[in-house]
Amino acid sequence: MFRLSSWERVRRAAELAEPDMVPVAPYIGNHAAVLAGIPIDRYCTSGEAMARAQWEAWKIYGHDILAPISDTYYIAEGFGVEVDHHPDSTPTFRAPAVKELDAVERLEIPDPHRAGRMSVYLEAIRRLRDRVEDEAPIRAPGTGLFTLAGHLMGTERFLMEVALADAEPGGAAEGALRMLLDKTTQALAAFEKACLDAGARVLGVGDSLASSDVISPAMFDKWVLPFEKRLFAELNEHGKQYGALMLFHVCGNTTPILESMADCGAQLLELDSKVALRLAKERIGQRVCLVGNVDPSAVLRNGSVADVERAATQAIRDAGPRGGFILGSGCEVPAHTPRANIEAMIRVARNHRYPMDQ
């Protein structure tokens, strides 16, 4: 009985093939800090602490993808967004960087090595790469370009401006918003490339604000899809030298935009728990590798071990046959999720070997 490394297992799944067993990658961020006994405010501001927490979590769980992540403001701070830091908690939004649309033109693309807290994540990736080497891939964080634009302007104001520009296309407001999205795309690309150079081999882009729970599918195709395509084309080109994989995640029920998401250019599509995996497998499973989608709150955080085992088994039945699937959490694992529940999820995946019954 052969056994692949985690990196080989993930790559085979990304190629829509059958690895030795179902890969498993719960999206563990701040949970790693709790597991390692590191205050979250230190974890999200120290590359050394973040790497140490992720290393400890990997030693305990043995999951297939490490993910040094915490909050979503580390790029936005580089643009001038103000946040508040709290004891043993993630930062929260205080003030935008863009108060009027005419200020967009003056925004400068931040240096990922010096601006905001991007350097914290780069250091964590470098430290993890030195320890893990090629055994398992490291997943870079990536606050999505649409979500990042919301951070820069303030989410409610940004969505209002997008809605107004959508109703009156071709005006100055649309031009300013497209310039804003162009700049967030550039900033995200620069950060993700720096993550690749630091040692990441899976580039994650999470665009929660682009959810079908927030904007319509038509707005996604108009305001998000063209920029995501450009972003992933650029990252795929840069990632060739590393053999890197791209992962795209949008929170919520993204069933109406599955085909558009699959068009973006990422090899891995991480789906939230609101999406029916069987349906997604039927619609786009021959185009992209699906990742997901055990409910992180109701099941992983608040469910029993038996609940986790049932949900993980059902996810594998729905999307695992014929390969092209990675068992994961629908979104980030809550910080105080019981260790036994994560272990149960991983155990279920390890017990499902290929070939499996359809």
Blueprint (SSEs and pairs):
Layout: H1 6-14, E1 24-25, H2 30-36, H3 40-43, H4 47-61, H5 76-79, E2 82-86, E3 89-95, H6 118-132, E4 139-140, H7 145-153, H8 155-167, H9 172-198, E5 202-206, H10 217-239, E6 245-250, H11 258-262, E7 268-271, H12 277-284, E8 289-294, H13 296-301, H14 305-319, E9 325-329, H15 339-350
Parallel strand pairs: 1-9, 4-5, 5-6, 6-7, 7-8, 8-9
Antiparallel strand pairs: 2-3
Helix pairs in contact: 2-4, 4-6, 6-9, 7-8, 7-9, 9-10, 12-14, 14-15
Describe this structure in words.
This protein is of the alpha/beta class and 358 residues long. The protein has one domain: TIM Barrel (Alpha-Beta Barrel), CATH 3.20.20. The chain has helices spanning 6-14, 30-36, 40-43, 47-61, 76-79, 118-132, 145-153, 155-167, 172-198, 217-239, 258-262, 277-284, 296-301, 305-319, 339-350; strands spanning 24-25, 82-86, 89-95, 139-140, 202-206, 245-250, 268-271, 289-294, 325-329. The strands form two sheets. A seven-stranded parallel sheet has the order 1-9-8-7-6-5-4, sandwiched between helices. It has a two-stranded antiparallel sheet with strand order 2-3. Helix 10 links the parallel strand 5 (202-206) and strand 6 (245-250). Helix 2 (30-36) crosses helix 4 (47-61), helix 7 (145-153) crosses helix 8 and helix 14 (305-319) packs parallel to helix 15. The longest helix is centred in the middle third of the chain and has 27 residues, at 172-198. It is globular. The model has no long low-confidence stretch (mean pLDDT 97).
